[in-house]
Known about the structure:
By secondary structure, this protein is α+β, with helices and mostly antiparallel strands. Among the domains are: 58-209, Glucose Permease (Domain IIA), CATH 2.70.70.10; 237-269, no CATH class. The protein has helices at 5-22, 206-209, 237-242, 263-269, and strands spanning 58-60, 85-86, 93-96, 102-104, 109-115, 129-136, 139-146, 159-160, 165-168, 179-186, 196-198. The strands form 2 sheets. Strands 1, 2, 3, 5, 6, 7, 8, 10 and 11 form a 9-stranded mixed beta sheet that branches. A two-stranded antiparallel sheet has the order 4-9. The radius of gyration is 24 Å and the shape is globular. The relative contact order is 0.15. Residues 1-39 have low confidence and may be disordered.
Amino acid sequence: MPLPRKSMLQNWLFLLLAFVLGGSSCPTGVPNQQSNPQSQAEPPIQFSLPLASDNMQHYFFDQDDGENGSCRAYNGSTACTGFESAYDNHRGTDFSAQTGTRVFAAAAGKIFKKVDGVDDGDMTTDEGNYIVIDHGQGFRTFYLHLQKGTLVNTSEGLPVTCGEDLGAVGLSGKTMGSHLHFGAHFGANEGVEKGTPFDPYDGFPYWKEHNQSDIRTTFWASMDAQGRPLRTCGDTPSECAACGFPCARVPFPRPIQLSGLSICTLCEIYDNGCP
């Protein structure tokens, strides 16, 4: 027997309401955020670029889980040589930069360890001159191959702010060219310098070890269209002085349309003269 018109209308309204509240069951090619809440995972700490700018080349973190003779970078490269790739068992990010380029704290914390006194070209140790910052909750960052005598504003145990000047890029330790080796670790204990290294570009293997292996969320606070991290805290007085603009102050975060410019160009743009 046919349903009364009122009952049919009620059924149609019920189905429409169910569709709106529950969503379509048809695949759309877009991940269902409700069925995968981990896709919204936020990193427990975020990093600012530890240099004034990132406009040179890189060697990335090797994500091949310790396999010797093979490499895998976050960007998909499986080459073990050449810039913009990883090299075997590399557990950090190398930012190529000229000797003397200032290095900054990637996040707030306190100085856990400081080593100075190694000459450029001295390969007696792997790290050369370096600083380790403890950020709490087991997170530490490492700044390696610094120039002797430039680590003057830091002492072990003292607090540092995000963007604070740590020293300058050098050639100390086992390095074939001037660069900053930036390392990020999690799970570090108070009495032990190192924890488990992870890749700040996508969090490998942090997310994997925290039961979120399908998630690759970056730990960089901001990145440009080319995937290069940006400085999101601090100031640039020393860089601007070197460029001939001693009183210029470049704002952070930088306007997106200016993020790809050299530091000297930015200093010129924001130079208002000295008071």
